Amino acid sequence: MNSCPTTFTKFTPFATVIIHAVRQQILSTATRTISCSRSISSSIVGPSGAIVVDTGFDEAMGKKRQREMIKPVRDGLEALGIAADSIKTVIISHMHYDHCGNYELFPQARYHLQDREMAYATGRCMCHQALRAPFEVEDVVAMVRKVFSGRASFHDGTSEITPGVTVHHIGGHSKGLQCVRVKTRRGYVVLAADATHLYAHIDGGRVFPITYNVEEVVEGYETLKRLATSPRHVVPGHDPLVLQRYPAAKAGLEGWVARLDAEPNYN
Ligand SMILES: [Zn+2]
Ligand SMILES: [Zn+2]
Predict the structure, then answer these.
(1) By CB atoms within 10 Å of each CB, which of 43, 130, 139, 199 scores lowest?
(2) Distance (Å, rounded) from C-alpha 205 to C-alpha 199?
(3) What's the 259 CA to ligand 1 centre distance in angstroms?
(4) Looking at the predicted structure, is the pLDDT value of residue 20 above 70?
(5) 267 within a domain of the structure (yes/no)
(6) 74 C-alpha to ligand 2 centroid (Å)
(7) Poorest-confidence range of 24-28, 53-57, 118-122, 152-156?
């Protein structure tokens, strides 16, 4: 059983948290169709500074993977008045190429990831093409360099990053996948990352094909629901509906940067 409270009772020092989803649209240039749509990076803005959850990928990687970059993560952060080079804390949900690139943008940041993800990305499973396909060796090497330069923090299961922000191991899609739970003005919001790519995955009990362990995927859906104040507090990692359901962070950012501590509109 998880002992975390699932209802929002009173404000904590992190009550002013603002969560934004920064769109990084993935457009397959091969088919000119939007596939798996948008990859969501989030910034959590609170009294102890901004935290970036997942760093997306850059234009060069997009080209290599036949993805056209529409809105880079850096631009999204700039639109919010956040300088990437001032970021002190980055949380990496897992090390697939679309979640841990752009590492040169955050020279001051300490990176938080699960023990199991680093072991998975550097161990025997990477001998198999089927398992290593979503990883990029340069991303993994960059993380190893952060370990050696003292800029990585490892977590095993559940950890608090700062008051009001916790990480939780999920696994399933990637062995060390973690979600991020944030206390906001509307309750506990859970940034699921690829623990549920789309709303349809968690709502229908469906499993995304890139999967290390199916049992952990479906159990992960239960964990996400338990951690979030309600199902409406779970934010999938790649669903374009996120940017329709949540209001823009400010005027002019519609369909690009959303505010996740606001009530979603499911109509
Ligand atoms: Zn992934
Ligand atoms: Zn992904």
Answers:
(1) 130
(2) 10
(3) 23
(4) no
(5) no
(6) 18
(7) 24-28
Domain count, the chain: 1
Residue 13 lies in a domain: no
Least confident span in 34-48, 65-79, 217-231: 34-48
Q: How far is the CA of 210 from the centre of ligand 2 (A)?
A: 10
pLDDT at 33: 38
What is the distance in A from the centroid of ligand 1 to the CA of 8?
30
Q: Residue 154: which region, alpha, beta or left (left: phi > 0; alpha: psi -120 to 50)?
A: beta
107 CA from centroid of ligand 2 (Å): 23
* Distance (Å) from CA 251 to ligand 1 centroid: 31
pLDDT for residue 38: 62
- Cβ atoms of residues 51 and 153 within 8 Å: no
In a domain, 232, yes or no: yes
Reference 67, options 97, 21, 25; nearest CA is 25
